[in-house]
Amino acid sequence: MRTLIVNCKNYPEVLGEGAVKLARAVAGVSGTRGVRAIVAPPTPLLSLVAAKTHAVVYSQGVGTMSGERTTGAVLPGAVKAAGAVGTILNHSESKLSFNALADLLPRLEGLEACLCASTSAEASKLSRLRPAYVAVEPPELIGTGVAVSKARPGLIRDTVVAVRKTGYTGGVLCGAGIVTGEDVKKAVELGADGVLVASSVVKAKDWDDKVGELAHSLM
Predict the structure, then answer these.
(1) Cα–Cα dist 18/168, whole Å
(2) Which residues, 6 or more positions from 192, have their beta carbon under 8 angstroms from its beta carbon?
(3) Is residue 182 among the annotated active site residues?
(4) Choosing from 13, 17, 54, 91, which is the catalytic residue?
(5) Beta-bridge partner residues of 174
(6) What is the value of pTM for the model shown?
(7) Domains and CATH numbers, the chain
(8) Active site includes 213?
């Protein structure tokens, strides 16, 4: 199944009820044409989005701390209790060491993980942890509107080959600068199973139209 993950980050458009509206747009395409659509709202809004929509919800991360006496920590159990089914980890804006990730994944309490990588070599290494998804995103293209599938097609091809060599059978996603349906189609042609996007959706004038455009281009 192809996958679309919309990372809301902390853009002002999705603070409060905006996150619910966007999540409904994402939920509206999930399951159509074999596409699994996932939304990752700001962490304080996880429960609100999960309760008010039928969206598949991920958190934008979880912390590495454990235990009850962890004031301010974002624990996997709390994220799961809020209604999330997975989490994004190791995004270039919130990097973790490989050792920290290797320690954290067994403690996710059933949450899926999408592990982000900047290079094909990093993606290959992370795939050995067997997350649900590995997403390659060159940091220099994030938020630029210059699609990785057009600017660095070799990175996507190399990543797919590298992670499959490890025996990894999960989804291989790509992100950074993905804006249009054509960007998505090119990514699929290069071997990606889906895309991880943020500003191209959140900043769009019509969320239903943009989410629909990207989702329909995955097939």
Answers:
(1) 36
(2) 149, 156, 160, 172, 173, 174
(3) no
(4) 91
(5) 136, 195
(6) 0.97
(7) 2-216 (3.20.20.70)
(8) no
